[in-house]
Amino acid sequence: FLAERMQDEILQEQILIETEGERIGQINALSVIEFPGHPRAFGEPSRISCVVHIGDGEFTDIERKAELGGNIHAKGMM
């Protein structure tokens, strides 16, 4: 039901996805959605954007600072 509803919203242009051209700091993505009890996973389109600025040469893991990243993510960023 959820996958079909998402597809209907895209076809009815309630969700607009720009698929042509280029934008600095933006990419289109496909998020895989899984729900317990739902028979299958489905993809949901999304837009990922970023902002970059000159820093001190160090990477900052904002998920770790905000305590959103788990142990495996934090170790991978070290």
List the helices and strands and how they pair.
Elements: H1 2-11, E1 26-33, E2 42-49, H2 62-65, H3 71-77
Antiparallel strand pairs: 1-2
Organism: Klebsiella aerogenes (Enterobacter aerogenes)
InterPro entries: Ribsml_uS5_D2-typ_fold_subgr
Keywords: Hydrolase, Protease
Characteristic key phrases:
2 strands, single chain, 78 residues, two-stranded antiparallel sheet, hydrolase, 3 helices, alpha+beta
Concise overview:
With 78 residues, this protein is α+β, with helices and mostly antiparallel strands. Helices cover 27% and strands 21% of the residues. A hairpin with an 8-residue loop joins β1 (26-33) and β2 (42-49).
Question: How would you characterize this protein structure?
Answer:
The chain has 78 residues and is of the alpha+beta class. It has one domain (2-77). Helix content is 27%, strand content 21%. It is built from three helices and two strands. The chain has helices at residues 2-11, 62-65, 71-77; strands at residues 26-33, 42-49. The chain has a two-stranded antiparallel sheet. Strand 1 (26-33) and strand 2 (42-49) form a beta hairpin. The protein is flat. The relative contact order is 0.15. The mean pLDDT is 78.
